[in-house]
Amino acid sequence: MKSLLSLLLLCFCVTTIYGQVTIKGVVKNEINEVIPYANIYLKDTKLGASANEKGAFVINKVPYGSYKIIASSVGYKKAFLNITVKENMSNIIFTLQSNTQLDEIELFGSRNKRAEKLETLTRLPLAPNEQLQSISILSHKLIDQQNALTLRDVTKNVAGVYTFATYGNTKESMSLRGYRGIPLLKNGVRINSDFRGVGVITDMAGVDNVQVLKGVSSISQGLGGDLGSAGGVINVVTKTPKFYNGGEVSFRTGSFGQIRPTFDFYGPLDAKETVAFRIAGSYDRANSYRTSVSSERFYINPSFAWKPNDKTNIILEMDYMDDSRTPDQGTINLGGYDVNNILKLSDNKFMGFASDRSNSVNTTYAIRFDREINDKLSVKAGLFASNLQTYAEKSYAFQGSSRNKLPVLLNTQRYREYNASGRSDKNSVLQIDLVGKDVETGSLKHTFQIGVDYRTSEFDNTAYKTTYADATKPYVDVIDLSKSIPNVLPSGVSVAPNPARASGSKTKSYGFTIQDKITLTDWADVFLGIRYTSLERTKGNFIGRSLAGSKRDDAFNPLVGFNIKPIENIIVFGSYASSSNPRTSFYTDINGNELGTETWNQYETGIKSTWLNNALRFNVTYFSTSSKNLNLKALQNDGTFLGYYLKGGEDTRKGVELELIGRVLSKLEVIAGYSYLDAKYKNHASYYLNSSPLNTPKHTANLWLRYAFKKLSLGTGVYYLGERPHNIWSRNYTHTGVVPGVKPFNLKAYTTVNLQASYKFNEQLSLDVFGNNIFNELGYNAYRTVYLNRITPASFGTTLRYKF
Asked: CA-to-CA distance for 22 and 644, rounded, in angstroms?
């Protein structure tokens, strides 16, 4: 009897062990595109899985039996299959039909949809809400719906992102978490490597999405050499090929004489659908609300994709932009350093010359390789490069001072000088990653990345010397803004290169990164990451501070954190990260000792949540970033440099960001955000205790609502930017325009309101009508008092689109 029981028990164990199988499959849509991160589960069981970025899923340890297997993804209708499990299954294919009512939710990065090229930025194959860092994705659907033309038009939909400066409407410098000029990437590569983060102009015709990674990003981006590196990164992602035929043409016209045709064509190039192309482009010409100011731009974005087999993808990309525009210094402040009395300059007046021009030619290239080794492992490699050439000739109006040895002009009078500048900026990134998805080691599950990268950056600034008609005067003329302003450049004014004042830098760096998301249980994940970077400069001349020979810096930067899911729709997260800045490491103290790299430390915590069946997301984030080892100039009160530097000071940023994104009703979309920022200088050699960085608002807010009827949709956007200091409050003369001991005036807060209406005549043809800043709010973006640029007044336009 005992032997019989033992035999039965053995049979039961064998049946239990071997009566379990694996189910594999893929989730696609009706046009045969894979659907990344879809949810697949067996009804009335706890068995299920999430698809990877290629739509593939694996469900392990499924007992023999009959089941209803269900697949779902935001923007698609659920699909199910009835299956009987007797052996391993590897050929299940789900085809999900688009849910037209929910399709547009991918305005702000869907919970279950992969953002194109997000892994280029983060290096981990995770959806945005699964990442440890705070990431916002702004899709091309939002760009189209809002008829956005600039990077600042798009990113103002992200809580805490605001315009730092436009430098005479020739660039777009964005700030986040109180850090000026955060790095701007295109497809993962720098475009303008100026450490001040001055930014560039971007055309939206070729943009698939814009990714905003908030906070320290050293784990994937390496050493942070920019003033804004600790604030975050903006990555502009261009469009890539599709393996089905389609396209769109549009024509936009509007205020200030704007005309803008665009095109976008894509499809396969062979019957087997292994090669595909895409080409997008635009032409843009416009005047301005201000006389004598205009712009013209040509843009094209071709790309090719090749799938030699089911496990290999190769994509080639290029985009080219040629932009020419009139720099506009804006207006002047009639008050002192501490008094806001900005002159509202009449639109029929221009402080410069009609021949002033700023030209930018930017070309980016990329080749990406993706090879799937098996269901768990893949190799990803990419080579990204950018070449930016800029040249400007323009006037500059100034008041005069003892520093330039000219008498101070009062009231509305200003000297007007003329200058030129040129810059060549070349950057590249080569990165290779081994990526694992849901790799099991015992009871633990790992999603990891092990990678190396090689980065190069080289820029050369060409300085110019101006010759004036009257050699005794270092300026062109004196203008009075209360009277007529001549806009024709007088004869006898010329510019020529001045090699003695040229500057530039050449750097290369090597990085090694390991990241691992360790799933401990269904409700707890731990993130561990470490990066080692070695950077070498072989030449350097930074605004008069020269580097002789070469200089090498290296650093280790960690990223650690956790995700805890107390209930299914809520994630509580926390993290620590650091970033190192080697830009000033060769500065020496009074004894000639190098001061070394600066370091930032960042702590984040918050909640990520989804509601209404994943249709609505609500996130809360608290952050704290600080640095206590800044390399600072030793200065006399008048700004005279003493020839050495100090190690010290403390720079802190703390704040809270709130975001509500998605759909509150079946036809009502919402994007809402609010940011509170407490940015202060502590124990600084020059800046007053608890003073704030320039152009740093305590409060920003954004709201976008869109309601869709059958053929008509209506949208409105409201955007608030709080008051902020126009310059630094300092004991010494540290920067242009600073008056020692005097607190700078604040730029006034402003709120703009936009309206959008779109009518679909059929599935192909639609018409958009829109108005921006419809209440003609008056506001200014400033860079100290060098540029005081008014925000664009009320403007209106229409866009006619045809899709095929």
From this structure: 67
Spatial separation of the C-alpha atoms in residues 107 and 127, rounded to whole Å? 15
204 and 290 within one domain: no
What pLDDT does 261 receive? 99
Give the containing element (helix H, strand E) for 144. Answer: helix 140-145
Tokens coding 793: 């007044």
> Residue 137's domain spans which residues?
103-238
pTM for this prediction: 0.89
pLDDT at residue 110 in the model:
47
10 falls within a domain: no
Distances (CA, A) of 75 to 39, 42, 54, 425: 12, 21, 17, 41
- How many structural domains comprise the chain? 3
* Domain end marker among 207, 238, 269: 238
529-557 pLDDT per residue, tens: 999 999 988 766 544 455 566 788 889 99
Q: Is residue 5 part of a domain?
A: no
Per residue in 771-796, pLDDT (tens digit) is 999 999 999 999 988 999 999 999 99
Both 219 and 274 in one domain: the answer is no
- 615 shares a domain with 519: yes
Closest CA to 327 of 298, 351, 363: 351
Q: How far is CA 519 from CA 79, 448, 523, 577, 650, in A?
A: 28, 11, 8, 20, 37
The answer to whether 428 and 386 have CB atoms below 8 angstroms apart is yes
- The predicted-structure confidence for 29-65, as pLDDT tens digits, reads as follows 887 788 887 889 998 888 888 888 788 899 988 999 8
Give strand pairing partners of 495.
Answer: 466
Give domain status of residue 2, yes or no.
Answer: no
Same-domain status, 693 and 723: yes
pLDDT in tens, 159-177: 999 999 999 999 999 999 9
- Residue that finishes a domain, picked among 96, 128, 158: 96
